[in-house]
Structure formats: C-alpha cells, structure tokens
Amino acid sequence: MEVLLLSIKEQLVALFPAVLQPLAGHLLSITPVLGVFAGCFALTTVLERKALGRIQNRFGPNRVGPAGLLQPVADGLKMIFKEDIVPLKADRTVHFLAPVLLATTALLVFSVIPFGQAPDGRHLVPVDLEVGLIFFFAVGSLAELAVFMAGWSSRNKYAMLGAMRAIAQMISYEAPMLLSVLTVVLISGSLSLVDIVGTQAGGFWHWHVLTPWGAAAFLLFLTAALAESNRSPFDIPEAESEIIAGHMIEYSGFKYALFFLAEYLGLFAMTSLAVTLFLGGFHPPIPQLAFVPGPIWFFGKFVVIIAFFIWIRGTLPRLRMDQLLQLAWKFMLPMAVVLLIVAAAWHRISLTWGPVFGWLFCSPPVIMAYLMLGRGGAGKKGGPRVYRYVN
Amino acid sequence: MSLTFAIIAAIVLTGAIGLSVLRKTVHCVLSLTIVFFGLAMLYIRLDAPFLGFALVLIYVSAVTILILFTVLLTRNREIETDVSPYSRGSIAGLIVGGSVFAGLIWMIYRAPLSRGITELESPASVKSLGERLMTEYVLPLEVIALLLTAAMIGAVIVAMKDPG
Amino acid sequence: MDSLSDYLLLSALLFSLGLCVTLVRRHAILVLIGIELMLNAANLNFIAFWRFGPNPEALDGLLFVLFSLAVAAAEAAVGLALILAVYRRYSVTDVENIDELKG
Q1: Which terminal Cβ of chain C has fewer Cβ within 10 Å, N or C?
Q2: For B156, which residue in chain C has the nearest alpha carbon?
Q3: What is residue B35's predicted lDDT score, i.e. its pLDDT?
Q4: Looking at the 3D structure of chain A, how many domains does it have?
C-alpha cells in the first residue's frame, strides 16, 4: 500500500513541468493528509455524539442517513449557510485572522508525522524534518496566540475570560507535555519523528510504552493532550454552563466551524504524536503481521486512543481551575522530571545489563514518585470537595 | 538578493514598521509576532532550522503571550484613546535611530565582507549542537540555567501583590 | 543565493527600528518590545556571520544565539514583572509619567 501510494505520487508529479514538480510533490503529500483527517473529524463528531448518547442512556444522532452517519454533512451545510455575524465593536481584522490562524496551525502539525514505510526504506511522511518534534510543538503552540486573538478581538467579557483560562491551561500543560516527550527523545537520541518511529520497529516489546518510564510518560502525555485540546475533563475554557463557549462565543457560521475543526484536529495531532512516540507508530505489534500496511496499523492505534478520549469525556466531571493548575504544576511537572531521570538510568542499565534489570531498578522510583507526589498533590485544596452549604 | 529573501525581508519589515506605528498595544504585539515569523524563516533559510523553530517556540508562544498578559493587566486609558502614542522627545529619538542606521550602513559597506558562502553538507545538526553544548559550552549552559531560574523567581517576587 | 550584506542590511534596519521604538513610544511595554527587536537583530547577525563565515562547522554563532534567546526570555520576564509592579504602585504604564525621582 505504501509503495502504491508513493508510486502514484511519483506518476502524478511526473505529469507536471519540471519547474512545478517540487510544488506539486508537496501538494500531493498534503492533499491526502487533509482529506483523511477532515474525514476523521466528520466521523469522530458523529461517533462521539453517539457514544456520549449511549453513556448518558439516550440514542444520539440517528436521523440523517443510515444510523445517523450523514449527520456531519448536515451539520456542515448548516454551518456554511448560517449568517456570519461580527460584533459591531469587534476588531474586524484580528477577529477574522484568529480562526484562520488556528485552523492553519492545526493542519500544519500533521506535516511531520510518518504514516508508513515502503519496503525500500522511503517513509510516507509529508516532510521529514530533522527537528520534527520541535516543529510540532512550535507550530502547535501558535494555537495559544490564535485563542488570545479570538478572545481579545471579540470585545466580550466571556470571550476574554475563556481565552485567559485557555491560555493559562495550555501554558501550564505544555511544560509537563514537553518534559514527558523529552524522555523519548533522550532514549532514541533524535528529534526526527521518522527516527523515533524507527527505534520502535520489530514488535511491541520495542515500543516505548512498554518500559516503566514510557508507560508513565504515555499517561502524562495523554492527560496533557486532553488539557491542551481543551477537552473534558479539562474543558473549563469553554465550559458551556459557566462562560457559554469561551473564546468562541462571538463566532458564528463558518468561523465557528473552523474553531470546532481546529479543536478536533488538535486532538488528532496529539493522538498521532502519542501513537508515533509511544505506540510504535505505523509498526505492527508483531513482525509477522508486517503484510498489513502501516497506515492501517497507525489508524488502528489512533482510533483506540480516540475512543479512550471519548470514554473519558463521557465519564469524568469537569475540574475546577485550581485543581487543574495544581495537577499540572504540583503533580505532572515533578513527575515528568523524575521520569526524565529514570529514563536516563534505564538507558544505562538496560544497555549494560539488559531490560530485566532495567525493569527491576526503574519501576520502583516511578511508583515511589507517583505515591509521594499523588499524596502531596492531594493536599487541603485538591482533595474531595466539601459541600459547605449542603451538609 | 533572491526573491525568497526579498519576500521574507518584506514580511519582517512590515511587522517591524507595524509595531512602531500602530496605536493599540495589542496590535503592536501581534505585529511583533510577524517579525518573529519572518526571522524564523530567515534562520531556516540560513540552515539553522533548530534555532528557527526554537525562536517560534520561545518568542511566539512564551514571550509574546507573557507580553499580551501584561498588556491586559495594565490598562492605560490615556494611551489607548487620544494622547499621542509617541513621547515628547520623539524627534530626537528618530534622529538617534536614523544616525545609528546610517552608521551601520556605512560600516557594512566599508567592511571587507566575504561574498562567498561555504557549502554545508547538511543543516546544522541538533546532535552536534548538543554535543558542543555538553562539552565545550557546559559552563555557560549551567550559568544560563541559573540565570533563568533566578529570573523566574525574581519575576514572581517582583510581580507578587504586596501583602499589605 | 543571497549575500551576507543583505542580511546585515536587514538586521541594521531592524536594529534601528527597534531603537526608534524604544526611544519614541511612550508605553513601557513597547519600550521593552523595542529592546527585544534589537536583540533579535543582533541574533540575526550572529547566524548570518556563522553561515557566511569561513568555518560553519564550528557552530559557535548558533550556540551564542541559543544563549541569547535564553537571556532574552529572562529579560522579558523580569522586565514585564517590573512593569506590572510599577503599574500596581502608580497605575501608569507611560514611561513619561514615571517621574517620581525627578528633582
């Protein structure tokens, strides 16, 4: 399948004149990524609504098309034909630029993620950057700027509050996220996502998630990813019951759809990165299954994590602001620093004595750190809520 | 001068001029981000992609957001509305800036600059950068780490509300 | 390929613009932004000299920029904290109105 895709691309590129060939090559790499993830977005919205409906003991969308599967089409049509309202006092330029910037950055981050590998060693990746991981986070962090622009330009106190909450949350969770990713960089010795995937080839026992530090870093990463993409239980920036929709409140029609799209694409980007860094990317779990193409494995793991996220959303209640920040700074950040040290130790120990000793020496510190930090983080404020007026 | 360079230079200069003439502070900060984007593109063009993306990561996501937060925490009505955004001695400032520019130009055209460029086999690799950082430059690295910690603690203490 | 003097010209322009912003604008935050602009002009020079210099394998220019980025971040944090503290005390951000020490 990878060979097929790459040769289709080559055939198509050869049709263009020589001057346009690099441009055409890039365009042809971008188009499938755009198409596939936009399709994922449409499917995920309907699946999420259906799953949430089942969790909450109702049906969910089931009217449009077979089993409600055409619901996203109906939603999209409605969004496009809605009137685009810009508040009178709003800063029109910035108000317009914010969703554009957000959607652009949400799409750009997919350009470094490898989706498969042909037998001759070529990778199915839009651009193989040597500093791919830095690119991912640099571009991903532009979302903060876009959220600020949206909140500020709307001239609405709810929008501003939501934007401030969102930015505080994104900045807080970026630190533990970067540190938990650094463990993988430390072990694989490269910032290129293609190389990082390459170190996990040859079976699930090579995956980074199956090491003491990797498992913990994976969980930290997933938590931070939920927070970065403003999803429940970290959805206070757009809490419907408190500040309506946060920075998106003054947006309508297609711009609102862009925000919605960017939010899901951000989630997909984080999920893809988690799959790439910890779950072996497009590599099959056992080498005998290598006849199944890489993209299928990639999207299989992807769907599992997305389903996990939907499950979390249906199950956990929203955190308070102070609980949210405490979790980030008092638990996740120290935990990630501990993991960094443990990963360095693992590298030395498992190289010299083998992975068994690595497990023996590296899992106690992780468990110890979890117990101590978990105890410490759940101080007076972080503990169970006291209902002062009820009891 | 190639076309790409001209475009990027135009982006950088647009941002820089924007931030010096726009009235609203938030607009100035947003046009500062345009400058940083342009500079990052120039870094990438000069075969230093790591620094280019690090610039975006540090400046656009950290420093700019910090500045924007400060702008929002310090509302100054008189500047936002009718008083001129330029200070009283602005003519003198412009003269100083212009003369510095003239001096720099004079020096650039006087200096014996090498016109050629040494070909690199590959862009500066992160690995060699890290190796240099951990061997030869390890002391500056530690000092910078100390400086950042001290600056962070200092900033928190300075910006903390007075207990009284 | 573009030449070294193009980069130097651009960075000279940026530096002078930064200087003008620092000297001309009234808002304290814009003064700080002008300083950031000047720092970045210097960084651009470092990278340009590293790339066009005789020995680009040495990476010294890049490392200098790396340190300069860190120092600039620290400077921005402390500067903004100072602006915030001054604002809390006098509720001004206009550098011309902070004249308590004027005799």
Answers
A1: C
A2: C81
A3: 92
A4: 1
> What would you report as the CA-atom Rg of chain C, rounded to the nearest whole angstrom?
17
Comparison of pLDDT for A283 and B87, the residue scoring more: A283
Residue numbers in B near A152 (CB within 8 A):
26, 68, 72
Interface confidence, given as ipTM, is 0.86
Task: Domain of residue A137: give its range.
Answer: 85-377
Say yes or no for a CB contact (<8 Å) between A148 and B60: no
3-state helix, strand, coil in chain C (%, to 5): 80, 5, 20
B50: closest CA of chain A, how far (Å): 6
Q: What is the CATH number of domain C4-90?
A: 1.10.287.3510
B20 and B31 Cβ atoms separated by less than 8 Å: no
pLDDT of A244 reads 67
In this complex, is the C-beta atom of B60 within 8 Å of any C-beta atom belonging to chain C?
A: no
Residue partners of B59: CB distance under 8 A and separation at least 6 = B33, B36, C36, C40, C69
Q: What are phi and psi of B91, to 5 degrees?
A: -65, -45
Q: Is residue A12 part of a domain?
A: no
How many residues are given for chain A?
391
Q: Is residue A228 part of a domain?
A: yes
Q: Among C22, C74, C95, select the one facing B147 at the smallest CB separation.
A: C74
Q: What is the pLDDT of residues A225-282, one digit of tens each?
A: 888 887 777 777 666 666 667 777 778 778 888 888 888 888 899 999 998 888 887 8
User: Minimal Cα–Cα distance from B135 to chain C, Å?
Assistant: 12
Integer Cα distance of A137 and A182 in angstroms = 12
Show me where the domains of chain C are located. Answer: 4-90
Q: Are A242 and A212 in contact (CB under 8 A)?
A: no
Tell me if C52 sits within 8 A of B97, measured CB to CB.
no
Q: Which of C76, A184, A56 is nearest to B60 (CA)?
A: C76
Residues of chain C with C-beta less than 8 angstroms from the C-beta of B58:
69, 73
Q: Which residues of C touch B148 (CB under 8 A)?
A: 70, 73-74
- Residue A241 within a domain: yes
C-contacting residues in B 134-163 (Cβ below 8 Å): 137, 140, 144, 147-148, 150-152, 154-156, 158-159, 161-162
Name beta bridge partners: B86. C25
Half-sphere exposure of A310 (CA within 13 A, CB side): 22
Residue C7 has pLDDT above 60, yes or no: yes
User: To probe the interface with B, which of A100, A134, A167, A171 has the most B CB atoms within 10 Å?
Assistant: A134
Rounded to an integer, what distance in angstroms lies between the CA atom of residue A112 and that of residue A122? 14
Q: Is A134 within 8 Å of B54 when comparing Cβ atoms?
A: yes
In 10 A of CB A205, how many CB atoms? 11
Nearest CA in chain A to B127: A190
> Coil, strand or helix: which one is C31?
helix
Q: Chain C residues with CB inside 8 Å of B154's CB?
A: 78, 81
pLDDT (0 to 100) of residue B142: 92
pLDDT band of B81, cuts 50, 70, 90: low
